[in-house]
């Protein structure tokens, strides 16, 4: 299912990596994960994502939220852990998947795994 809400998308990740460095950028992704996760489960769940979208004033349908979770859910548990969230953010950044930026992306992911 392709969603098109007529929104323009500007990918800030490459400039964030350039200014923050790999560790700083990963730290910011982890902060974003913490804001969206269910504090009791340590995961981004359907319920936590729905609640946070509402708090942010975003009107997102349930099927769209489920698609977001399914896109990043690598272990099939229906939720996103921190690593799945970070991997998803990298995959959704078109600039990080192009040419030289892919090398920077690989280095950043490698630093996450250490």
UniProtKB/TrEMBL annotation:
Taxonomic lineage: Eukaryota, Viridiplantae, Streptophyta, Embryophyta, Tracheophyta
Native source species: Stylosanthes scabra
Record protein name field: EF-hand domain-containing protein
UniProtKB keywords: Calcium
Domain EF-hand: 60-95
Matching InterPro entries: EF-hand-dom_pair, EF_Hand_1_Ca_BS, EF_hand_dom, KIC/PBP1/KRP1
Pfam families found in the cross-reference section: EF-hand_8
Stored PROSITE patterns: EF_HAND_1, EF_HAND_2
